[in-house]
Amino acid sequence: MPTPKHTPGPGETYDPTQPPPPFGHALKQYFAFKNDYINLNHGSYGSLPLPVVWASSQLAYEIESCPDIFHRLQYFEKLNKSRELLAKFVHADTDEVVLVGNATAALNTVLRNFEWREGDVIVLASTTYASAANTTRYLADRSEQPRPTIYTIEYEFPLTHAQVVDLFRSKLREVKQLHSNIQFTDVPPASTGFVDDVTMKKNKILAIVDAITANPGVLMPWQEMVRVAREEGVWTLVDGAHSIGQEPNINLSQARPDFYLSNAHKWLMGKRGCALLYVPQRNQYMIKSSVPTADEYCSPGTKAYEKRGTGFVTQHEYLGGSDVTPFLVIPEVFAFRQWLGGEEAINGYCSKLAVEGGKRLAEVMKTQVLDESGELTLNMPNVQLPLPVEKTPGELYPPELRTKINLFLQSKLLYDWKTYAAHYYHNGGFWCRCSAQVFNEVSDFEYLGRAFNALCQEVEATFLKSK
Amino acid sequence: MTQGLGPELEHTPGRSYDPTQKPPPFGRQLKQYFALDKEYVNLNHGSYGSLPLPLLQESSKLAFEIERNPTIVAKLIGSDVDEVVFVPNASHAANKVLRNFEWRDGDLVIGPSTTYGQAFNVLKYLSDRSEQPKPTLVSIQYNFPLTDAEIIETFRTQLRQYKREHAGTQFTDVPSLSPGFTADVSARKNKIVAVIDGFTANPGALMPWRELVRICHEEGVWALIDAAHSIGQEPNINLREAQPDFWLSSCHKWFFAKRGCAVLYVPERNQHLMKSSIPTSHEYTGTNFAKQHELPSHTHESALALREWLGGEQTIYDYCHTLALEGAQRLAQVLSTKVMDENGELTVYMPNVQLPLPIEKQPGQVYSPELIAEINALFTRQLLLEWNTYTTHYFHNGAWWCRCSAQVYNELSDFEYLGKALVATCENVVEKLFS
Question: In this protein, which residues make up the domain named Aminotransferase class V (chain A) (predicted)?
């Protein structure tokens, strides 16, 4: 058949020689939202700019015109280009960065590659994302040894960064004290006391550290926590799912986490299905197999292993039949953001709007923002909802009721009010986490406030009536 | 202002079809409904699939409503809806099963020598663990050409041989349909898990997997069927009847679904073993099979509708199977060689034909691993870039072979064209690498 000729739809192309429209509602033309939808929840699923939608669909046609030429002769070069751009963005070497489908896949790759032993410990946080926590639970749920023991640090926000670091350090030391009979000698290469001799390595501790938590959405002092962990001989897996495209100046060569991951399809505005997994050279020996195991798996004792070791990069080049377009449109993603003015312009606008919008929202709802000092907020303000606060957990809101309320809010916001921000129960109260993006304005927050006022009144009148 | 939902196509024939009108005859005229480049002669549908244009058009629209429809697939394979989940691809499915087993010292895992690279590699990975527990990996050696009867005999013989070699191990952890199954967990010591190809990749051969499953049941061996190539090619897959312990297939190969979709079948009786999806998800609670895999596949209904419009599975089968056999004969003529599958037992849509290159009697006599890699690379470049066609090519049992794919848009002349290309390329190989 003749190759289809396409004409781009409205918003699917832009003239890079002309300045973009001003940030705010004028930019909505480059995004795919239905006209009346007010998106204050970019944080959950990202928002794909129309020019990247266009690039993806063009690429899809190109792939289908000859899948063999594409997969066998063209794919790898394109993949490496994307890896290079992302690695540069986080100040890492290209060969320390591979692409996987999403943050959960990246987390599983690391967690499932550790060879767990009886006595090993994993330290999580109460705010650790569900799929990460579940993966550790699954590992610990094994019906027989070996399986790690799980500890969870309770973070109840608001907290200052200093308080977070203190809580973190205390927990690590507490774990060691509780298990003083265990020799935690399997420390990361970057820590003092590291030994090459495998027989000397007994047990290990791994900490999963959020760079930006999900609920609430707050910036954590992760670089400091990585440093503390390193001092304590603890492995760090940094979950930066929300980080690239929101957090400025990510410098992995400087921060030196043992493992790091981030979603390109959140704040970077990439196509859903692309995350970066960073494993510094010194730790690549640990990642024995991609998940799932790939064609390029290097078995110890083979020639391939002699040449490439675990082959971290080659193992992750092809993970089976899938839609690879999210990996390959990264250049177009960066080009669009460049056109908007680059990272500083984008995050300058968003972080300012996050503060103003959060404040305005709190005024409309007559409540308060979670983060008074501003230390914890980048582009995602967290604001309390106008619902009663309970002093003891379960007093007012048993878990089933929390779920009911959340489902109610979700459905009404999306279907009746045509707007959304994530909402969650935390520390006795209900909160919302907004996302300030380049297509938002303060009036969006005001609208959301009106919606929450109405809905929370309804919640009190119905779900909480009997209380 | 309504946002444009995806690219606007200038009117191009093939981007949609009228379900009330008959389709064009199979062959050259159907090509317009596929996104393949006009000049490209595709005889390698088997590797990556070919997405029909109407489905590509549809999936490039922003899908705000995504449907899940395991019913369609469940019906096709003869299983219950709750026994089927979607995963991104066949590798994921195989990994899910194999990584959920809690391996113990003494366990045996059996893979066929012809298993697709990625499937075998996960077995290798599991047994490469630097300390216990890890299963011992052994393989069943298949040297094609083989008849069904020979395959069955090979499997049974080698399986029993391995059991004898490990006579000291109590393989009492048998699947629930096997004699000697006990519900008492403490009585279950070790297990044997066999990965069986429903359809091998290289060569592309339909295996007598139902018979192999029966043997596994008798012998107390868990059977995982890797049937990546099956849905949309193999007729009458009836899992309720065949009763494998686990079965998987790619929907984006022969079923025309969009790349990124495979199905994993786990019968009710085994679901308690599948504790976690891969990766472990939000919904993990210990074991809730279906809930953990809510991955949508929105092109299944469209794929099925298109296949119905083409005339349904039987019509597609009749055309493709006949063309596979005739095309292979023709190709073998042009190449002055032979087809691998003399009696047609192993061939559905993917015939295997020998290439005109030297055959070696002893492994390594003519072809080192490096030479094999060089020849494969040369084939890939020349076929794709100079001749604008493709078939997979591989070295097996001393000889070189190609595995073609007969699809609804192919005709006999495609095989003739491929033959010309292969003759020229093989001459080139001999010239470059054997002089």
Answer: 76-142, 201-282
